Amino acid sequence: MDTLFDLIIVGLGSHGSNCFSHFSGKMKVLGIEQYVSPHTKGSHNGETRIVREMGYSGEYVDIARRSLELWQKLQDSTSEQIYVNSGGILFGHATDSQFRDYTQFNNPNLQQLKHQEVESRFPIKTSKEQQFYFDKSAGFVRPEIAISIFINQGIQKGGKVINNCRYINHIYKDDEIHVYTDLGVFRSKKLILSLGMGIKRLQNTYQLDVAIYKQQVVFFKTDNKNFDKLPVFMSENNSQEVYGFPRVNGEVKVGLHHFGPSLEHPDLYDQTKSEEGTVNQIRQFLVKYMPELKDAAVSRVETCVYTSTRDHNFTIDFDPRSKNTIILSACSGHGFKFCIVMGEILEEMFNTGVQKYKSFQLSRFQKPKF
Ligand SMILES: Cc1cc2nc3c(=O)[nH]c(=O)nc-3n(C[C@H](O)[C@H](O)[C@H](O)COP(=O)(O)OP(=O)(O)OC[C@H]3O[C@@H](n4cnc5c(N)ncnc54)[C@H](O)[C@@H]3O)c2cc1C
């Protein structure tokens, strides 16, 4: 292809697709994707993702708020169900570290609930050693639908997409970036690499500190309408973190939030192999906290991937060789909610040449050279 693009975005998953929508129409954009997005071979499958402000602090607070505004705006613009403001409930022991961290932040929406109120409003069984907090601004979004909308918006604004095309590397030549793929070389002035777990392949080039963790979520089939009013929930119990969603299409989805064991390379990701014990651990959680669901049949188990940094913050920064390339990745198991704000963040970065969010900078992991 002879065209010189203004911007090439590699990876049209969660974050890349939002950038594709955001920049298309403002400049000449090409999106390159190794599969056809959305798909089930990365980090965005599984039909629901929690969106919330609860639990975030520091540099995340403003972007969490902005993302909720933008999800609402997207929902208002379409008849498809993208964003559901179900509220969110956070529960755990005051002694559990993550739970303690989550509840100490000054979130004006976070309200402590009495045990009686929890049991009267939701199908949750309380125990006296647990504390319960409710965030009325939390809810969930539909990742596959959102990604399809972003890609379609980008195409309608003039963006081009090449699917089934794999990025290999890129080089800088005069003022151009030459992007090498298995379908040939594409030229651009700017580049965004939004590869999800594929970023692990660039670990040595960028001295990245990322790990890949296979995750499985379990769908329970139920006719019980009480689970329609369940808010999204996050629970910590003796360091075991469990999260889940209200009933959607007759199923309640529950997952374990954990880091490990990690995969050495993205090519070792095997979706067919079941993770030991996930269903049993979740079943034990249900027996204790959601007994109305304890005997529900498992309708399916879905596999997905966290790409995580050591400090669980994102990696969004310039290629040290050029302010025209941004690496956008490692969203550490909690990144989907923020994809809707990534176009705005990256536009500011390209315009100013500065990554103002210190928590996302590449340099935080680079070892001093002496
Ligand atoms: C089980 C599970 C539950 C989660 N729950 C939540 C939640 O409740 N709330 C939340 O906010 N977040 C959640 N997350 C995290 C969130 O889903 C991820 O942070 C987010 O999807 C990461 O987006 P991404 O764009 O980096 O990756 P992806 O969406 O995987 O996109 C990367 C894209 O790059 C493409 N690609 C890779 N390499 C190449 C290449 N060489 N050439 C071309 N294309 C390439 C891939 O095919 C893919 O389409 C969860 C994740 C998992 C796995």
UniProtKB/TrEMBL annotation:
<keyword id="KW-0285">Flavoprotein</keyword>
<dbReference type="Pfam" id="PF01266">
    <property type="entry name" value="DAO"/>
</dbReference>
<feature type="domain" description="FAD dependent oxidoreductase">
    <location>
        <begin position="6"/>
        <end position="348"/>
    </location>
</feature>
<keyword id="KW-0274">FAD</keyword>
<dbReference type="InterPro" id="IPR045170">
    <property type="entry name" value="MTOX"/>
</dbReference>
<dbReference type="InterPro" id="IPR006076">
    <property type="entry name" value="FAD-dep_OxRdtase"/>
</dbReference>
<dbReference type="GO" id="GO:0008115">
    <property type="term" value="F:sarcosine oxidase activity"/>
</dbReference>
<dbReference type="InterPro" id="IPR036188">
    <property type="entry name" value="FAD/NAD-bd_sf"/>
</dbReference>
<keyword id="KW-0560">Oxidoreductase</keyword>
<comment type="similarity">
    <text>Belongs to the MSOX/MTOX family.</text>
</comment>
<protein>
    <recommendedName>
        <fullName>FAD dependent oxidoreductase domain-containing protein</fullName>
    </recommendedName>
</protein>
<dbReference type="GO" id="GO:0050660">
    <property type="term" value="F:flavin adenine dinucleotide binding"/>
</dbReference>
